[in-house]
Amino acid sequence: MDDNTLLKISLFLTVGGIIALFFILETAEIQGISVSAAQNKSSGDFVKVYGIVENVISRDKVTSFSLNEYRQLDAVVFDNVSLENGLFVELEGKISEEEGKKTIIVDSIRIK
After folding, report:
1. What predicted TM-score, i.e. pTM, was given to this entire model?
2. 32-111 domain in CATH 2.60.40.420?
3. Model pLDDT, residue 30
4. Do 24 and 51 form a contact (C-beta atoms < 8 A)?
């Protein structure tokens, strides 16, 4: 085959692959897990967790609370978020562990 033809084919396939990856990433979704399952995840794992908000504490630009679903898991949002006890929420974030205690560092939160 001609070098020019091979170049055109490789460029076409490369652009097609990038477009396919873009659509795959747009439609992919992280599966939600329970608070109990999140307790078993490793530090640094990205999770989506559902639960009921309890023990809300808001200070300056940090909001901390517990997420409850038969077991509790602490969560921290580095933003001033308006939450109330008893709300059912969906969190996405990374698991952090300090001194044996796991916490979710929240990237996004949705009230359900």
Report:
1. 0.66
2. no
3. 65
4. no
